[in-house]
Amino acid sequence: MSHPQQPPVGHHDDVADVPHGVTAPDAPVPGGPERRRTGPGRTVLRLVGCLVVGAVVGTVGTVMFQASYPVGLILAIAATLAGSVTARAWGAWSGLTVYALGWMVATGVLAFVTGPGGDVIVPAHVESADWLRRNLSNAWLLGGVLAIVVTSFLPWSWFADESRPRRPRPL
Fold first, then answer.
1. Does residue 7 lie in a domain region?
2. In a domain, 148, yes or no
3. C-alpha torsion 53→58→62→65, nearest 10
4. Total Cβ atoms within 10 A of residue 79
5. What CA–CA distance (Å, rounded) separates 89 from 68?
6. Which residues cross the membrane (predicted)?
7. Counting beta carbons within 10 angstroms of the beta carbon of residue 60, is it exposed (0 to 12), middle (13 to 18) or buried (19 or more)?
8. What per-residue string of b and e applies to 128-154 under the rule 16 or more CB within 10 Å gives b?
9. Most buried among 23, 64, 87, 104, using CB within 10 Å?
């Protein structure tokens, strides 16, 4: 007796018996690995995005840390930490590196380039600045770098797209 040939797994000729909004167990999940698009163009866009985010966070943080002591400093360092975590999630190590580059260039330009009147936004290296402003500036520069370094030491599994299989629990 011959058995009728069964269609391959994942092949559905009759979709009328599947209710609307319910997918078959072997159907591809929207946004799953079948739909994930990777390539050099996407990678370059992610890295450019990380660079822009780093420059924006560095610029806004440099201006914001002096806005109100100590809340501005805490918010600026928290924004740097959030941006670095986002950059590492987007682009792994290369994303974090490019984010750090954007952050350092933005804060470095604002810290060490003098304005038309000879003033700087971050007076960490200016002897004529008062004690509080110099130390706030040092706290901003070192705190931002420390936030980026802390992000680099976070476990890679926190940023992985795939989930690890669960271990069986002992009885």
1. no
2. yes
3. 70
4. 19
5. 31
6. 44-65, 71-91, 98-118, 138-159
7. middle
8. ebeeeebebbebbbebbeebbeebeee
9. 87
